[in-house]
Amino acid sequence: MPGISAFRFNLRVALIALIFVLLLLPPLLNALPASHPLRVSDFVVAVTGKWICYAILALSIDLAWGYAGILSLGHGAFFALGGYAMGMHLMRNIGNRGVYGHPVLPDFMVFLGYKELPWYWLGFEYFPFAMLMALLVPGALAGLVGWLAFRSRITGVYLSIITQAMTYALMLAFFRNDMGFGGNNGFTDFKDLLGVPLNTPSARAGLYLAALGALLITLLISAYTVQSKFGRLLIAIRDAESRVRFLGYDVTAFKLFVFVLSAMMAGLAGALYVPIVGIINPGEFSPGNSIEAVVWVAFGGRGTLIGAILGAFSVNALKTWLTSFAPDLWLLVLGGLFIIVTLFLPRGLIGLGWRRRS
Amino acid sequence: MTDILNHRLTRRAALLGMGAALATPAIHGASAQGAPIKVGVLHSLSGTMAISETALRDTVLMMVEGINSRGGLLGRRVEAVVVDPASNWPLFAEKARELLQVAKVDVTFGCWTSVSRKSVLPVFEELNGLLFYPVQYEGEEQSRNVFYTGAAPNQQAIPAVEYLMSKDGGEARRIALLGTDYVYPRTTNRILRAFLNSKGIADADIMEEYTPFGHSDWQGIVARVKRFAGEGKRTAIVSTINGDANVPFYRELGNQGIKAEDIPSVAFSVGEEELAGIDTKPLVGHLAAWNYFMSVNSPANTEFKAQWQAFIKNPRRVTNDPMEATLVGFKMWAQAVAKAGTTAVDPVREAMYGQKVDAPCGYTLEMHRNHHLSKPVMIGEVMENGQFNIVWKTQGPIIAENWSPFIPENANRRR
Amino acid sequence: MKNLILTLLLVLGLAPMCLAQDDFSGTALRLGGGFGEQAEAVEKLGLSGDPRALPLLQALADGKLTRMADGALLIGEADALTGAPANAAGASAVRINNRVRAALRIALGRLQIVSPDPAERLRAADGILRSRSAQDLPLLDAALARETVPRIRERLVLAQGAARLASDDEALKRAGIESLGASGFEAARTVLLEARAGNAALAEAIDAAVARIDRQLAFRRAGELLFQGLSLGSVLLLAALGLAVTFGVMGVINMAHGEFVMLGAYTTFLVQEALRGTPLAPWALPLAVPTAFLVTALLGAAMERGLIRHLYGRPLETLLMTFGVGMVLQQAVRLIFGAQNREVSSPAWMQGTLMLPGEISVTQNRLWIIVFGIAVLLLVMAAIRFTRFGLDMRAVVQNRRIAATMGIRTGRVDALTFAFGSGIAGMAGVALSQIDNVSPNLGTGYIVDSFMVVVFGGVGSLAGTLIGALTLGVVNKLLEPYAGVVLAKVAVLVGIMLFIQRRPKGLFALKGRAADQ
């Protein structure tokens, strides 16, 4: 199995190093003077930053699916919840600079006639609290859903369908304006984060580097997790759950741990994503988004960590390019690609290079 | 490589370059003399909004073709850069940035939903771009980087409700506000509620209900409206139901036997395009309020319809209000560019103020300093052939109140 | 006195001629004027009882009345007033608005109440009901005296009650309130509530009558709510049945299932267009059912043989692959048919409402969809139980290898089963074309719900799918009035998730070997 030796010092580590070096380039090249031939535009920084967040999301899915066999079709929900936590903080940061100049309430609450901040908005003016919530809320939801599901030994496609229903229900709920999360519009028009205006190059570079750092940290945590004895157990659970259970291991607890960890990583990705793209809304909960994220992992090669990252970058780069280059045809191309990859590349892109081993 | 670019792919040359952006960042040099003027088109071509927005993409392409056949603008060719934001709101912001920074478009026509506009707004403001937004909306906004060519609430919603309360409209004294749950219906209904209250209609006589996007099972709500209407006062429906959900809504209305002369409904988001997907016979008499109908009788409209059907190669394709707003916006922009002698955003913006266009709606429309058009308001009744019979219209164009006086918070607004 | 003559004439079955010739033409010509003028002229003509007005008003209502530049009115190639042939060149249609339309219904009612056609009389009674005018009392009394059809009598009594309530005579008013209260109609309730404000002295009697109607309505509304739930349930059933076969029996997760439903709806559209103008046109919808089945079944067979076959035993990969297929199908349809909705019209027998016993009104199209859903379910059950294909299919599901050794060509059975499931999805599309948009996005809205129904009912159990779908539909509709549309749906989803924790295999769990897979 390719997954077991996830972090041996080998070709793979070299590949990872190369990816990270390449990823350092956009903000550096962006800092060059405008006339320089090698300068890249802010757009490249913004869009690559978005892909990095997607890569963290893909990594979190790979951890749960590739190693523990938990295919969640609702990871987009954890991502979105993390994003909403950050979005709430950014909304609170706007202060009285909104259209209506209200010192406390965000604009959408003012014109929906709110008189005071709902209780669940309290505390989000503090950045550490918001970051904590970006991790804890997805973690708690994953803990609840996971506990209920794993305890009843709901596995495989059943779990996928349940998690899909979870994100669908959340999407419907967040679309409601009465929820106090801005309804369909969600949150946008953010002003600043930690005192730095978001529309400056330095803020953009900072966010980019923060996302890159987060990617590195989550990769290290994931690699450490899957490499330890714990990781081997996860793989055993993935391949023969009943046998591990009969050996006396508490399978439910193991799966729950990895599911919660994975959800928190997704929440972190969402929290970084929001200031980079400048908007969060219930569309992020749509079941299609979650499935797409799973496809990135399958495309790159599941159970390899690095494959998830590669998959997220390559599919999204392709999508960004195709939606401009072939706006009418991109769905055909992307859909066709998914078909071809699942049929002919069961190990994904990574499988191309590692095929000889199996 | 360059050859291919110049030959087949000029339209999207810059974007193709983007694919290789890191390697060849200088593919699009400074716009030299005679380099084409670029018009960004930011409309969803896939996903839920494609149903409405593809026609607007085609309208812009038609206008571009038209202007090029007349020798271009400032002696330069005009070129459309089409992207697909795929009904995905973050993608709208990303594509806006791509259009402005990578393709370096001079102007953008785009967006339909409020959220897509809100999503791209910070980008256009940061990069000082120029966006023409062609759809009726909730107001409460005015950006120096956006020209709003659709209606503000006072140019659509309020006159429509006044009509329902008039003798001709059926003297409604009880109103059901049905909408899709997003900001446009919410804000419009808030304004309408304040307006109705000011006309002496109590809150007990107003029903307000929201449904999710694409809602398809209207049995319960229509039955509740029927019951609401049976409480002894003339009742009307004001619908801010968004695109996709309208077909099942109207089908249910027809099947439950609600006739327009019993409970008239007036819609703000249903035009000729939406009706093209419905059997309109049971709907005859239901109303829509717009600033343009395909059935308007004016020379400019005759020309518009002919040009559109020739361009789209379908003699039965319909035109609608947002398409007209796109056309008016495009013409005004072209006039402003000609007047300013440049496509640079700041001079063009100055030149936009006071621009006038003989619009297909039959009036001369003017762009005001509030970035909104003056527009006539028309009320049309659905006819059997899917067109609208215009039963009422304002004397002339009225000026947009994008900051509604019916929203008290507007008093504290930052200016 | 005049009313008395009118009544007498009506009793004799003769229509009176109350307007002098020039008065008639003067009034009639005003039908071509502005909306206000039209409405007044319509009312005057209706009250006149003049039979010459009937064709005129009918033509105006049907949009067949045209107007020349000089003000002359035509119907087709003839003068509308005299019937003399006329040149229609340059005539434009006379447009009306809702106010005129409402006046027309009253006026036509007054003129047609003597019609020999019962359907027209029924419509006429409802038209007169709208007037709420004591002027109509003699007309209604006379009509009631000769009416024998119970259904029309009911409506006439209703109209009579409304007219009595509008009179100045206290005793007559009370009689009106009494008969309205006894009728039990929702419309009677409306009439009573309308009159309440103007009749403070009668408020008590009116309230009592309204309360009486409300008691009868409570039962009716419960019936209607149940129907709404069953209707939603039957839609869910149709959407989920195909999945119950492909997912429930074969274990294939087909994320493109919604797109098969969408293709079924587009097939309906194509059949309708192909038959347009032919004698078969009214049968387009029934004919679309087998066509849609065949089209989607063929596509399903091709997909199974070409793609899914290679992924057996890897359900999650199948899920991702079919997601890709869904994307391709959706965009292909968008490119071929355009992003706009396509119009699929309903045949006449599927429009309007139907009164069930107990005055429960149900919409025809939804009633047919319930019938259709149950028919399809029975068909599927029969196919699985009684046909050779069904036997093979059950054999392959229970034990593939033994089935193969018995000489069953398992590959062929797989393809047929998947084709069968896809075909059912296509048939669901025919039904959905009657209530939803025929657009490329049609299927997306049903996919999550369909999976939930199948999982909730118990994978592999058709009875479970039926009970699951109907339960979800009814619960959803019961919650809706209290929680609102969105929260009702969210609550149902959460409810299913919790239910599945308790019973992971759904309502009707399969027992035996197949259940352990």
Q: How would you describe this structure to a colleague?
A:
The complex is a heterotrimer of chains A (358), B (415) and C (517). Chain A has 358 residues and is an all-alpha fold. Chain A has a domain at 42-285. Chain A has helices at residues 11-30, 42-68, 75-94, 107-111, 127-151, 156-175, 201-227, 229-239, 241-246, 251-277, 287-300, 306-325, 330-344, 348-354; strands at residues 187-188, 192-193, 196-197, 279-280. In chain A, a hairpin with a 2-residue loop joins strand 2 and strand 3. Chain A is globular. Helices cover 36% and strands 16% of the residues of chain B. Chain B has helices at 2-7, 13-19, 50-69, 89-102, 114-126, 157-165, 183-198, 219-229, 246-255, 272-275, 299-311, 321-340, 345-352; strands at residues 37-42, 78-83, 107-110, 131-133, 146-148, 174-180, 206-211, 235-240, 265-267, 287-290, 356-358, 364-366, 378-382, 388-393. Chain B has a seven-stranded mixed beta sheet, with helices on both faces. The longest helix of chain B has 20 residues, at 50-69. Chain B starts with a helix and ends in a 22-residue tail after the last strand. Residues 1-33 of chain B have low confidence and may be disordered. Chain C starts with a helix and ends in a 15-residue tail after the last helix. With 517 residues, chain C is mainly α. In chain C, strand 5 and strand 6 form a beta hairpin. Chain C folds into two domains: 30-212, no CATH class; 219-516, Orthogonal Bundle (ABC transporter involved in vitamin B12 uptake, BtuC). Chain C is elongated and about 95 Å long. In chain C, helix 12 (257-275) packs parallel to helix 14. The chains are: A mainly alpha (358), B alpha/beta (415), C mainly alpha (517). Chains in contact: A-B, A-C, B-C. At the B-C interface, helix 3, strand 7, helix 8 and helix 9 of B face helix 5, helix 10, helix 11, helix 15 and helix 20 of C.
